[in-house]
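FAQ

Q: What does a record look like?
A: Structure on top, sequence underneath. For example:
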């Protein structure tokens, strides 16, 4: 296979993975897979959470395609597709786990409007601690934070966790003013 076609397959896979991640996050993780993902919407008590199993689950297709394409004589395009899935996983890890959730120490400070937007959108996703009522399921593409805040307000803030240190809903309303 010509390397240019491989690069196109790789890039198309990275782009496709954003759509796949959105769908998996919205309809699997916030659906029947909530039993694992719920741990990610709660304060973490150690280095790991049940939600981390999704990284292992989603790595399997990448591993199988890389192995099949490189060692088992499958179509060579599977190498590029497997690499694209792995690249998306690395991008996701860097953005989600390092930059947003700070699971590894980093001095990164977002400067671009794009990075500020996707970080704020992901944080708005996490203000809801329930299975339903969450906004913004994408990772690299996200609606404007103003639109997400308006949607949360339209839903009467259903499922939104109270700010730290606020004991009651009345106290939460006072802290918003």
């Amino acid at each position: 296979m010509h390397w240019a076609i491989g690069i196109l397959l790789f890039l198309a896979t990275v782009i496709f993975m954003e759509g796949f991640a959105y769908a998996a996050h919205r309809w699997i993780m916030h659906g029947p897979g909530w039993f694992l993902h719920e741990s990610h919407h709660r304060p973490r008590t150690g280095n790991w959470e049940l939600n981390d199993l999704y990284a292992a689950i989603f790595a399997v297709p990448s591993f199988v395609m890389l192995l099949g394409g490189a060692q088992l004589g499958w179509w060579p395009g599977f190498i590029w597709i497997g690499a694209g899935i792995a690249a998306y996983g690395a991008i996701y890890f860097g953005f989600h786990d390092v930059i947003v959730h700070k699971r590894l120490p980093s001095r990164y400070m977002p400067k671009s409007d794009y990075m500020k937007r996707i970080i704020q959108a992901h944080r708005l996703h996490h203000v809801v601690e329930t299975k339903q009522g969450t906004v913004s399921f994408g990772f690299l593409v996200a609606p404007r934070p103003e639109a997400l805040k308006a949607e949360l307000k339209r839903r009467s803030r259903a499922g939104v966790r109270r700010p730290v240190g606020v004991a009651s809903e009345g106290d939460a309303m006072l802290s918003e003013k």
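Q: Is there anything notable about this one?
A: Helices lie at 3-29, 34-37, 53-71, 77-100, 113-126, 145-154, 169-176.
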